[in-house]
Specification:
It is an enzyme of class 2 (transferase). This is diguanylate cyclase. Keywords: Membrane, Transmembrane, Transmembrane helix. Its EC number is 2.7.7.65. With 373 residues, this protein is an alpha+beta fold. 63% of the residues lie in helices and 10% in strands. It contains 11 helices and 8 strands. The strands form 2 sheets. It has a 5-stranded mixed beta sheet with strand order 2-3-1-7-8, with helices on both faces. A 3-stranded antiparallel beta sheet has the order 4-6-5, covered by helices on one side. The protein is elongated. The relative contact order is 0.08.
Length: 373
């Protein structure tokens, strides 16, 4: 990663949702542009045929649609663009059905409404809009006198139109419901895969790959505003003896117990990861030297107090302090490094690793703060 370059932090599921929004917007842009052209053409035609009110209404709808397109390209306000287009579309459909258009054929344009609305604004809002639209169309077609209108349709057409429109509306709900269910399932699977790619399966902590991305973010913040961060390199002492004496299952339980200390004992801004084997790396955001030392010492002390039951009848050697009385006891060595001016992320990690080595060499079960000297 280049220096001061913002690392990508958007998840896969978020990217999929954002792409879905873009796809809907692109569709609505194309639809609005096409509709504006078509309405302008039909409006001019009916004006020439002497239908002044009908023609002006079509040209007005075309102008509103064009306005929505212009404001979106200038302001990029997607929600406003969708609302204006949906409102214009709803008003236009009601007008077309109320007037009948040329020879009573304008109502045929209404069939695209439920398909468009449920796709553009989603199923829940789409159901509300389409229900209100159907009630309005039902009133206009069957009892127009309530609204002071005269129906241009025959009795046979009214029944067939309302039934076919109802079928189209219900079919639109089924299609959009199925599409959204498939989309939600893909998003859920994407989130599960994303979580699995970031999490260590055994401990539930961040894995090395995810921690590397978090370190890159911390480095970016440091380069932009010199926001300090510290890293703790934590290694379990004599862990091989635990595996050799009590088996890898007991070793796994021991690592999980240690992970619980990280999960419960760190600040919300901190992140612990399994760096490899029995080694853990902790990132402390916005941390001073004293904060880092205090957290490191707390981890060491709480680990020393752990008592992990194990099913074994094998007694421990006299010089083996990892287990007594069928209870595994652990200690950790911790190397601490603070991001200093003039250093890099790699140099900070190397310093923490060297401090860990010194803690091991000095007798283990201790914190080495050499990086702060």
């Amino acid at each position: 990663m280049k220096k001061h370059e913002k690392p990508a932090s958007q998840g896969v599921a978020d990217k999929v949702q954002e792409e879905e929004h873009r796809r809907r917007t692109r569709f609505l842009l194309l639809f609005s542009a096409s509709t504006s052209v078509i309405l302008s053409g039909i409006g001019i035609k009916v004006l020439l045929n002497g239908m002044l009110g009908y023609g002006l209404a079509l040209l007005t709808a075309s102008a509103v649609t064009l306005f929505a397109l212009v404001q979106y390209h200038l302001l990029k306000r997607r929600v406003l663009f969708e609302n204006i287009t949906v409102f214009a579309m709803s008003a236009l459909i009601l007008l077309l059905v109320a007037t009948g258009g040329e020879k009573g054929t304008a109502a045929l344009w209404s069939y695209i409404y439920p398909l468009l609305i449920t796709y553009v604004i989603g199923l829940r809002r789409g159901i509300i809009y389409c229900t209100l639209m159907y009630i309005a169309l039902f009133t206009i077609v069957l009892v127009p006198e309530v609204l002071g209108l005269q129906s241009p349709y025959s009795d046979e057409f009214k029944l067939r139109y309302l039934l076919s429109y109802l079928f189209t509306t219900l079919f639109s709900f089924v299609i959009e419901s199925s599409r959204q269910a498939s989309s939600d399932e893909l998003l859920r699977l994407g989130k599960d895969i994303e979580t699995a790619s970031r999490m260590d399966v055994l401990t539930g902590l961040a894995n090395r790959r995810h921690m590397q991305s978090l370190l890159d973010e911390a480095e970016y913040d440091y380069g932009r505003s010199e926001t300090d961060y510290a890293v703790l390199m934590v290694d379990v002492d004599h862990f091989k003896k635990v595996n050799d004496r009590y088996g890898h299952s007991a070793g796994d339980v021991a690592l999980q117990s240690l992970a619980s200390i990280f999960a419960n004992g760190l600040r919300q801004t901190d992140t612990a990861s399994r760096w490899g084997g029995e080694e853990f790396l902790v990132l402390l955001r916005s941390s001073s030297a004293s904060d880092a030392l205090q957290i490191a010492e707390r981890i060491r002390a709480e680990t020393e107090q752990l008592e992990i039951p194990c099913d074994t009848d094998v007694a421990a050697d006299e010089d083996d302090t990892t287990a007594t009385d069928n209870v595994i006891r652990l200690t950790v060595s911790v190397g601490v490094a603070l991001r200093h001016q003039g250093k890099s992320l790699d140099a900070t990690l190397l310093t923490a690793d060297n401090c860990l080595y010194q803690a091991k060499h000095a007798g283990r079960n201790r914190v080495c703060p050499q990086a702060f000297e």
